[in-house]
Amino acid sequence: MKSNILIVDDEPVTRKSLTDILRLEGYNVTSVPNGQAAVEYVRTHHVDLMVVDLRMPGMDGLEVVQVVNQLAPDTEVVLLTAYASTDTAIQALRLRIHDYLQKPAPPAQIVSSVKKGLDRRAARMQAKGGVLDSLDAMEALDSVVLDDGTEVDLSRRQIKRENIIVNLTPAEGRLLRVLLANEGKVFAHRELVLLVQGYDTSQREAPEILRPLVSRLRHKLDVFPALSDQIVSVRGTGYVYEGKKDKS
Average pLDDT of 97-126? Predict the structure, then answer.
């Protein structure tokens, strides 16, 4: 299926040039002359990626992106500007804009940026699909009893064996629930951040976010070796729960 791209620029020559370049690459391309028209289009059409001019009469490019982030948060954005500045670049980063290019950008640079943006979107949507499947499994699991008698009460975030009781924080409980509910499934760092913390992040940042949380959970589980020994780090990928268990 062809990706849908929206060009937003008040200059007719630029709109036509960008439209022609990207249509030649096989994309479905629509162009509009201002920010308000872009917002109205996004309200009623599916858009995978937008190429947006920074300076336009009325709504500027950053204002358009702020609204689109609310209407269609999965839409990637490439921002074009003839007036690059550090402040604008910082604002663009805060809005999670995919790329920030200076006019006039060469056709090859435009095509490359659009392709990378669409690849990033596809990877994110694939991760979200896996997350939805995992959430279904998580909701169905309330408690686990291991072979050595260790009881995991996921609703109370409490682990017990004999006279030992350990309580988990909400984040630790969500992490343990994800792993136990998906025995044998290797979770990428990025998937786990989305499931446990509720937000998307980059492949580079995800391990740094997870590492302290996993460390704290493992420390608490040290007194339950039948549980802790089965949470395994998969080098360069993420984590998996390998243990066999009897569910109740």
Answer: 83
pLDDT tens string 175-220: 888 888 787 888 888 888 877 877 767 778 888 988 899 999 999 9
Cα dihedral across residues 89, 93, 95, 98: positive or negative: positive
Residues paired with 68 in a beta bridge: none
- Bridge partners (DSSP) of residue 78 are 51, 99
- Say if CB 140 and CB 134 are below 8 A apart: no
Does the global pTM surpass 0.70? Answer: no
Which of these, 5, 36, 34, 41, lies nearest to 21 by C-alpha position? 5
Which pLDDT score, from 0 to 100, does residue 71 have? 82
- Least confident residue range of 130-134, 163-167, 226-230: 130-134
In the block, residue with structure tokens 């300076």: 55
Q: What is the pLDDT of residue 82?
A: 75
According to DSSP, residue 35 is labeled: H
Domains detected in the chain: 4-126 (3.40.50.2300), 141-247 (1.10.10.10)
Helix (H) / strand (E) element for 103: namely: none
**Residue (of 146, 131, 136, 104) closest to 9 by Cα position:** 104
Length of the chain: 248
Q: State the pLDDT at residue 12.
A: 93
- Do the Cβ atoms of 114 and 49 come closer than 8 Å? yes
Tokens 């009623």 correspond to 44
Q: How far apart are CA 214 and CA 203, in angstroms?
A: 17
Burial (Cβ within 10 Å: 0-12, 13-18, ≥19) of residue 245: middle
Of 16, 78, 87, whose CA–CA distance to 53 is shortest? 78
